Amino acid sequence: MQRIQLLDAQLANQIAAGEVVERPASVVKELIENSLDAAARKIEIDIEKGGTQRISIRDDGYGIDQKDLLLAISRHATSKIQNLTDLEQVASFGFRGEALASISSISRFRLASRNETQPHGWQIEVNGREPEISNSPVSHPIGTTIEVCDIFYNTPARRKFLKTEQTEFNHIQEIIRRIGLSVFNLNLHLKHNQRQIYKLSPAVSLSDKEERIAQICGSQFIEQSLRLESDAHDFHLWGWFGLPTFSRSQSDLQYIYVNGRMVRDKTISYAVKQAYKDVMYQDRQPAYVLYLELDPALVDVNVHPAKQEVRFRDSRMIFDFVFHQVKKLLTQTKPVETQHLASPAQHPAKGMQNIARETQNIASLRPTNNPQDTQKQMSLYQSLISDAHIKNFDVKHSEQPQQKPKAREVITPIEISDTKIPPLGFALAQLQGIYILAENTQGLVLVDMHAAHERIGYEKLKKAFDTRHMITQNLLIPLSIRLSEKEAGIAEQQQNLWTQLGFEIERISPESIVVRSLPALLKDSDIEKLVRDLISDIQTYDNTQRVIEHIHELLSTMACHQAIRANRKLTLLEMNALLREMENTDCSNQCNHGRPTWVQLSLQELDKLFLRGR
Ligand code: ADP
Ligand code: MG
Known about the structure:
Blueprint: H1 9-20, H2 24-37, E1 42-48, E2 54-59, H3 69-72, H4 84-88, H5 99-105, E3 108-114, E4 122-126, E5 132-133, E6 143-149, H6 156-159, H7 165-182, E7 187-192, E8 195-200, H8 206-217, H9 219-223, E9 225-232, E10 235-242, E11 254-258, E12 261-262, H10 266-277, E13 288-293, E14 299-300, E15 311-312, H11 315-330, H12 350-353, H13 374-386, E16 393-394, H14 407-410, E17 426-431, E18 435-440, E19 443-448, H15 449-466, E20 472-482, H16 485-493, H17 495-501, E21 504-509, E22 512-519, H18 527-540, H19 544-549, H20 551-562, H21 572-583, E23 598-602, H22 603-609
Parallel strand pairs: 1-7, 11-13
Antiparallel strand pairs: 1-2, 2-6, 3-4, 3-6, 4-5, 7-8, 9-10, 10-13, 11-12, 14-15, 16-20, 17-18, 18-19, 19-23, 20-22, 21-22
Helix pairs in contact: 1-5, 2-7, 10-11, 13-21, 15-20, 15-21, 18-20
Bound molecules: adenosine-5'-diphosphate and magnesium ion (MG).
Residues 30, 33-34, 94, 99 line the site of magnesium ion.
């Protein structure tokens, strides 16, 4: 039987290092955070061989007193907190007093520092032996330089886990990006093998900040994102959120900062994901840089050894807040006139930037209808869209009196003089039964009519469902559908759901059901196919609770069925009505799957195509 012994300090530190120092990038992170805690304005990072050979970090912070050098590298020694109350309010990056002790126990370590009370710097070295403090001063400006060489040289088991130089450097670079995205007022320089990788200068104004974000995340991101700025419930939430059409296949462009600390947080990332859900394919990932600031007492930062996670006192509230703010931001992704943008700092999509600035005379290319007559067009359009199957229906309660499409041929062009041109302009023609071509002040607008109509229908269905105002219509001749016994069973069990969705469905035999009524919006669709699709959706979400959670998927299926099919010829009136509806529908810049519904080709872009100078 072995007796119990106290571990010696070196071994204890090496064991603790396992939690703090996963790889060279973790060293870089801890050292930069120390520099920031010391109020550094400039940090220079020099890396050799992905950090496996050498990491050097120099800052201009307030430095360390000679008498504290030994303490700085001792475990559980920190200048940042003194008691539990401090821990509950902690605002510094570090507070555990572990980083330097851990790092110096698994590397050849040198720290040189000078504070403002000292005429010179002093240095401490750790080389697998007892720490040695230089007995003569070293030359050093106020601030601190730390050099970490041959990481894991004395812990061979861990050294084996190091990846290639490039991989390790990629991790370091990611750390620098994360810091660069949050500490804007900092000079941050990074070199790898003598080569300058980043030279970021302090960003003060909003446009400086956006420029820095463009440097780090790419200019595409900043051009194609919306800026959020919101204060409520003592939370300050801000950041940049990629347009749904700028989605990615991976979650590699998602940065979350809580009180300036970069974290991975499931509550926040899930809230954002849910906010995008409606405008993005399931397997696509949004891109965003998000900052949340709140009272430090409402968040526990001491839940992860490397401080990469936090715990909110009320995570439900955080979820709701983030979800609603981001969702609200995203509903603005509809065609708007530039001067109506919700926030002046917003970056509308490249295509949106160009939309209608001021009235411009387009008399020469004027379409043959009147923009003031939008209301009339809308109802006309609705009746046109619906006239196909009308004979088969008995209108139970309809939204508005149906107008007959007779007006189609007798519409006379009305002169436009000083009328404002709407964001999506006026329709010119239809291409291949798929696209609408329209002209606005910027040039040509191309609309994918099915995609656009699908979104419009989806938003209408959602609203009707939420407000329990699903308008239904009876079928003159009820439609019976043959199903498998299992499917018929599912259809029968979901009576409540069918009612909410606006259907009246009854099982009439083990293998068949009959549809008696359905939502008015869907009356022109292939009803049998629609009902089969819905049953198959319901089947995937097996039980009732999950079906309700996935109600939007069901509504989306319904929207797809009501949307105008390709090859449906539309008149100019119908096309214009569709454009106006898009302008009035939230999220209408993308279809239910996150693809764009329209694009702008500006005159400049068209000129370029024809190599035409202006
Ligand atoms: P922590 O950051 O949790 O306090 P560390 O082991 O990282 O623990 O650092 C120990 C102490 O050394 C810090 O509390 C701080 O007083 C001092 N220190 C470390 N790095 C620097 C630096 N770059 N500039 C000034 N002081 C530093
Ligand atoms: Mg620290």
